[in-house]
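Pipeline run #58 for the internal structure catalog. This entry was flagged by the ingest filter as a single-chain record with no existing model, so it goes straight to prediction. Upstream metadata was stripped on purpose; only the residue string is passed forward. Reviewer on rotation: M.T. Logging verbosity set to normal.
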Amino acid sequence: MDILTDLIEKVDDDYLIGLSNKGTLKRAYKDLEQENPVLTRQGEEAQIALKEETCVLRVPLGESSCSCPSQSICRHIITAILWMKKEASSGTAGAGAVEASDGEVKGDAVEASSGETKGDAAEASSEAEKANVETTDSGAANPADRKKTELLELPKERMIRACGSRHLSVFLAHIRQGALPPIEESSIVTVKLPWENVVVKLLEPFAYSTCSCHSKELCTHKAQAVLAYQIEKGKLTPDELDVYKETENSWDENLVKKACGNVCEELCDQICTGLSRQSPEVSESMERLAVITHRAGLPALESGLREAAAYYQQYFSRSAAFTCETLFKKILILYRRAQDLTRVGNREEIRALAGTFRDTYEPVGRLHLMCMGGRSFKSKTGYEGEIYYFLETEKKKWYTWTDARPIFYEGTRRRPPAGSENAPAPWGLNCSREQMQKLEFDLQNAKAASGGRLSVSQETKGEITGAGSIESEEVSSMIVWDYETLLKSCFGHSEGELDTESETEEQAEGMNRTTGRRERLALVGAVRWDETSFDTVSQRFSWSMYDEKGRKLYISLKYTKEERLTINLLERLEQRLRKRKKGSIVFFGSLYMDEDSRLCLYPIEFFFREENPIENPSNKKEHTDANKTVSAEILRTMDQYVRESAKQLSDLFVSGLYSLQEETISQLSAVSEDGERLGLHRAGAEFACIAGLLKDKRHRMEFSPEPVIQALANLSAYLSACLEKLTYDAALLAMSDTEDINTIGK
């Protein structure tokens, strides 16, 4: 039996539907009843003449052709396949065929007669059955039991590229939740992707696989179907896919290194020239570099360069908001990142430094959320709206949903305000947004981006489960009654450890990009409080809270039109608390450090409790770290040194490396000695290294500034880490309220 006949015998209706569709197959069955085809063999091909058209069947069947105008597998080809399959099963497919030579038919087809011809056909059929049993896998009588060798051997790298970053992330999120798409296997493999709302039929050869999106090429749906099939068969694991997962960029290493080389060269030239000698066109140069890094797929560098360009514009416009220290620090961070990217060895290292252009919303399954409150905002980037905060009580994770509206249309409001009390809640919840803030509900098919930002999509549906309460065990266990523990969990480092890695705002967990504010959310309890006060000179509202150890937490708000209602509410709240003889209060809000290095809370919502947390385990814990707190005088000295060192670096940037005076080098040496005496040995060593390199410059015809700039970048990162640690220690000391440390951090 020839290969074509053997293949046709194995195909079934599922395979033919995969080649065409169910309607075409039904029509072919009807046409077959009216047809009396004539078969002509042409080598490995079979020419079948129907009443209307002539078809040529080839291996693979997807390469078959028809004389009709159709460009795909038409009903005539399916009819020819069905007829030839029927004839092959009866053993007469080859008996009546006439051989053709050089493309010409030598004679008309002769019908098979009884006697010797039928005997030959029966013998051929018997031999074909034996050959079929030998060539198929053991136990492959059921087409579903046959191994789809080609589908299993398709390279995963090709499928991952076809998926793209966003679709691969969604696919992996569903797989990790145990939601492997339904797979039905017969002569073809049918994969249903519920999250894409498509059905993929995988055939062998793979090139003839079909998708309900009607794409003729390798689409993301076919790629996901292949990956799902390989995972089901154990050929692939989700962890292997995670290793190959790429961002939206497919980086060209040579292009990346060339772009970063340009960045390093430009920044090096700016540092050597000095800020005082820069041309106003330098901001345009930074914008051009931003475009270059964008094309290279480096969003972290792109955003940093645009930010530096904005700082230069502030400098030349003599803006009061400009500080030389901030600009120089940004330039050194950019130089350090660009240098690291020029030394990368593979795409994994590029991915770690490149950043992402935008976050994608990935499925997170079912969430049980309790709404903790909401607030309005107005950002400097031209947006206003509302942010709502939710607590996932099972995993104890914070989520947010932001409804933002642009306000930069110069008086034209494109959307009506949605912050009214009667505005409908998202996700199909049958309540208003004000009512939502008092409820718990389940979210089905939820999607979230980094930082827990929830998406409002058609697939996500909410169902109210009851009223929310902080008295539940899951929520009450998250209330922090010890302010020292609160400070450590939000701002602390391991003892003796300084984080000198520069973290971008986009990488920071909890960053709300719409408002541009990094939020450290917490539930904080207070058992005692002072009276509120308002400074009429600085126009600032202040309120102090205490834990059971007497440590202090501050609520400090600058009076603005937006914060006026919040301040009035807090003043009324303090009056209500005066009348309560017992109990405590719990605030939900965002923690931050103010300009006086104090731990402060921006309040979003508050809750009353009837009893103090006497039996809270954290209150019984011994706090040995209090004895380790350094004195305010030491903190002032260290803080002064760090800030003077940063000022020394900015002076270096203003003058430029090519225009240094002898006095500047002497000052660097003096700062190095001061650092050694204070115990900041790394700062002392870096200053000494910079001073030594600059001294050697006077005795050389050629000077390479790269080692100096690298030392400056390392020193700047170290000083930033020191300042952060000093701010933490100052906040810890401020809690006790035993010493006046208001000069720290200024």
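catalog note: The radius of gyration is 36 Å.
catalog note: The chain has a mean pLDDT of 79.
status: ready for reviewer M.T.
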